[in-house]
């Protein structure tokens, strides 16, 4: 398998991971699940912040599934998930405890980390599409 074919397959896998995770969490935010409401109440951003983040996550999905905007979707995913991770850290714990006493065991934080890492890899794979943001001209393997 050539380097280009490997990048294409890896890109498809990363896009699927990001899309599945973000579909789930954006649905929870936009539908008003108790967990999402609780998190944004703790952050003092309920309901406007919850809706804005849900729409941002849907925007990332649209950018990632559109072939011409994959790289921009990767960058937008990095920005969105950096905000998510910092929000959890601001609350003092990566593990969320909800009003009913249940605990997510850090699952939401770990999903944010997974999307962040996948978005970084996606932006790296598609870096030439970023134009002025292009941070690598030629890799040693392509020289």
Outline the structure in words.
- It is built from five helices and no strands.
- It is mainly α and about 140 residues long.
- The protein has one domain.
- Helix 4 (about 70-90) packs antiparallel against helix 5 (about 105-125).
- It is elongated.
- The mean pLDDT is about 90.
Order of helices and strands: HHHHH
- What shape does the CA trace take? elongated
Mean pLDDT over the full residue set: 88
Measured distance between first and last alpha carbons: 18 Å
Catalogue the unreliable spans: none
Present the secondary structure layout:
Blueprint: H1 3-31, H2 34-43, H3 48-65, H4 70-90, H5 107-125
Helix pairs in contact: 1-3, 1-5, 3-4, 4-5
What's the gist of this structure?
It contains 5 helices and no strands. It has 143 residues and is an all-alpha fold.
Descriptive tags:
elongated; 143 residues; 68% helix; 5 helices; mainly alpha
